[in-house]
UniProtKB/TrEMBL annotation:
The chain crosses the membrane at residues 33-54, 123-143, 155-181, 205-221, 259-285, 305-331. This is ABC transporter permease. Its main location: membrane. It holds the Pfam family BPD_transp_1. The lineage of its organism: Bacteria, Bacillati, Actinomycetota, Actinomycetes, Propionibacteriales. Keywords: Cell membrane, Membrane, Transmembrane, Transmembrane helix, Transport. The keyword Coiled coil does not apply.
């Protein structure tokens, strides 16, 4: 009886490219998410410990200097200020997972209800500023790279250098003096009526967005310019020129796509900067967002609001860092190859 030999299975040619490319992204997400959770935990401990050493007495600040010791003791018990540091931290930290950040000491509102509208206003401000600054920075960077060493390149280079050296509040003051005081083109402050959102009066968002854009664009412009110049001087760009490709087609179809990786990284860092820069900008324009709420909470020694805001901003910082790393990986094919 002749034994039949089974033909060996056909060798696999490898996983599909999209699956192989997804492995580094998933690995990066898991790694960054783990470190992000650890970072948020550390920040939560630091935030809570820092608020414990703030000067003054929250109960005294609420009731005033004429309050009796009995009333102060009752209010401290109601606010949970009579608990030990560890018990207070455990109560506060476990409440976060239930969506309970406590009660504001100043307004006696739940912190989530107090900060909800302000979070939406700040998110709208950062989103609009990010879109405008990214589009403007990339466009100007590509334009100056295509006309390097020209008059426009030198002028924009000097303007970008000066703008990058100015703090946000200085830029905001100049913007207010020029566009609000001299030209009366836009409102100088962004105060809203109760119940309103910033998109109900978009003119009050123009000056804060312009300030953030002026601060962020120089970094994107300079990085994009350098990356595009490097791409235009590369071998593949020279080969494209020999084939008759030139002008805008060479710039936008060959040089700019290959210059995206370092530019995207700077854009991600700029978004992170915007998330932190809103504190000063919102204070200058009295913009009803998280930045102004943080300043007001520190002034009033509103500990639950301070804790929630600092934890929220630090979480945004961690999430934006992860998204920036993933974006760089997506636009850099060689970094997605398995090692």
């Amino acid at each position: 009886m002749t034994a039949q030999l089974e033909s060996p299975a056909a060798p696999t040619t490898g996983e599909p490219e999209r699956i192989r490319a997804a492995h580094p992204i998933l690995s990066l997400l898991l790694n960054r998410a783990g470190w992000g959770v650890f970072s948020v935990l550390v920040v939560s401990v630091i935030v809570y410990a820092s608020t414990l050493v703030l000067p003054g007495d929250a109960a005294q600040a609420i009731l005033g200097q004429q309050a009796t010791p009995e009333r102060l003791e009752v209010l401290r018990e109601q606010l949970g200020l009579d608990q030990s540091a560890w018990a207070g931290f455990v109560h506060w930290f476990t409440g976060i997972f239930r969506g309970d950040f406590g009660t504001s000491l100043s307004t006696r509102q739940p912190v989530t209800e107090l900060l909800g509208p302000k979070l939406l206003n700040s998110a709208a401000l950062v989103l609009v500023a990010a879109v405008v600054s990214t589009a403007l920075g990339v466009a100007l960077g590509a334009l100056t790279a295509s006309r390097r060493d020209g008059v426009l390149d030198h002028v924009l280079g000097i303007v970008a250098l000066v703008a990058s050296a100015m703090p946000e509040y200085i830029v905001g003051v100049f913007v207010v003096l020029f566009l609000a005081v001299d030209l009366h083109a836009f409102p100088a402050i962004s105060v809203l009526a109760p119940g309103q959102h910033i998109w109900d009066e978009p003119s009050k968002m123009v000056l804060p967005v312009l300030t953030l854009t002026i601060v962020v664009v120089p970094y994107i412009l300079r990085m994009c310019r350098g990356s595009v110049i490097e791409a235009l001087d590369s071998d593949y760009a020279e080969v494209a020129r020999l084939k008759g490709v030139g002008g805008r087609r060479l710039l936008y179809r060959h040089a700019l796509p290959n210059a995206l990786a370092p530019t995207v990284q700077v854009i991600g860092l700029s978004l992170i900067y915007l998330a932190g820069g809103i504190v000063l900008v919102e204070t200058v324009f009295q913009f009803p967002g998280l930045g102004l709420a943080l300043v007001d909470a520190i002034t009033a020694r509103d500990v639950p609001v301070i804790q929630a805001l600092v934890l929220l901003l630090s979480t945004c910082y961690v999430v934006l860092n992860i998204l920036a790393d993933v974006a760089v990986l997506l636009v850099t094919p060689r970094r997605r190859l398995p090692r």
